[in-house]
């Protein structure tokens, strides 16, 4: 991670994992303030490039994964 540079507007792609919440709540809220998740890709895209086409492709991808 040492060489990774983030710019204002870069976003992460994460998948929420509600079942893990009781296991990690104590540490996670203190550290980053979001629910239990798995980081898929950082940085993902600049926020200005995340449009409905990108959202639709991600919904399709994750719905296929959920059925597997």
Helix content: 25-40%
Number of domains: 1
For the CA atoms, what is the radius of gyration? 14 Å
Which of globular, elongated, flat, extended, rod-shaped describes the shape? flat
Beta percentage is 5-15%
Distance between the termini: 31 Å
In quaternary terms, these chains amount to single chain
Describe the structure.
There is one protein chain. This protein is of the alpha+beta class. It has one domain (13-67). It has two helices and two strands; from the N terminus they run E-H-E-H. A two-stranded antiparallel ribbon has the order 1-2. The model has no long low-confidence stretch (mean pLDDT 82).
How is the topology of this model organized?
Elements: E1 13-16, H1 21-31, E2 37-41, H2 52-67
Antiparallel strand pairs: 1-2
Sum this structure up briefly.
With 68 residues, this protein is of the alpha+beta class. The protein contains 2 helices and 2 strands, in the order βαβα.
Give keywords.
68 residues, alpha+beta, two-stranded antiparallel sheet, flat
């Amino acid at each position: 991670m040492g060489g990774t540079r983030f710019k204002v507007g870069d976003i992460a792609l994460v998948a929420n994992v509600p079942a893990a919440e009781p296991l990690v709540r104590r540490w996670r809220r203190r550290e980053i303030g979001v629910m239990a998740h798995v980081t898929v890709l950082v940085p993902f895209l600049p926020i200005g490039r995340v449009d409905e086409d990108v959202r639709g492709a991600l919904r399709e991808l994750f719905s296929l994964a959920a059925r597997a």
